[in-house]
Design brief:
By secondary structure, the chain is mainly α. It is built from six helices and no strands. It has one domain.
């Protein structure tokens, strides 16, 4: 699988946010974990850092990743690859 472009990663993060917002229980967990308000969501929806936090939250639990990817027809690796693409040059390398 190739590394997604930043635009592709942002699009995937927006899809993840839409998926989260359609899952009432999980959406409330996301809102509580991030401390974001609905106004924050609207104002930061194009903010790369915020979109990264959406993918950070989603990738905390394999079951969430699987549910999202299954519903969107994506490979399970795509959310993490998108998160790494959003990090850009700030990406950490442990080797």
């Amino acid at each position: 699988m190739k590394q997604p472009s930043v635009d592709e990663a942002e699009t995937l993060a927006l899809r993840a946010l839409a998926w989260l917002s359609g899952n009432d229980d999980l959406f409330h967990v996301f809102m509580g974990a991030t401390g974001a308000s609905e106004a924050d969501l609207r104002s930061r929806v194009s903010d790369r850092e915020f979109l990264g936090s959406v993918l950070d939250f989603l990738t905390m639990d394999d079951a969430w990743v699987m549910q999202f990817c299954d519903s969107e027809g994506l490979n399970y690796e795509q959310p993490l690859a998108a998160r790494l693409a959003l990090q850009g040059k700030a990406q950490m390398h442990w080797t």
